[in-house]
Amino acid sequence: MIVKQDWHGKNVTVIGLGIEGEDLARYFAGQGARVTVSDAKSREALASRLAALRGLDIRFAFGGNSAADVADADLVCVSQGVPLANVAVVWPRIVWLVKFSSISSL
Fold first, then answer.
1. Which listed CATH number (3.30.1330.10, 1.25.40.10, 3.40.50.720, 3.30.390.30) goes with 11-104?
2. CA pair distance 19, 46, nearest whole angstrom
3. For the purposes of burial, counting CB atoms within 10 Å of the CB of 38, is it exposed (0-12), middle (13-18) or buried (19 or more)?
4. Taking Cα atoms as reference points, which of 59, 49, 3, 4 lies closest to residue 22?
5. How confident is the model at residue 103, as a pLDDT?
6. N or C: which end of the chain has fewer CB within 10 A?
């Protein structure tokens, strides 16, 4: 069974602009999602990746990852090589756990 998700208008954050981060950003932008890419590296260090994504409606955050980068995300995609202890990776899990705990205690 193949289930097709409609990403149009959804907030997707990609953490890490490596090979898969670039592909994820391109895919979700092409699907109409509001894409944010967050990377610890500088804009200058990622110049070739940025050139490959030129013309796509993508918001970029460079120089670190923060909880603000994922605060409104409907989906967070984490590139390999990004530590799972990174605040932008941990924060959505904490928020989900709080929401889930609140719902289950009703």
1. 3.40.50.720
2. 11
3. buried
4. 49
5. 46
6. N
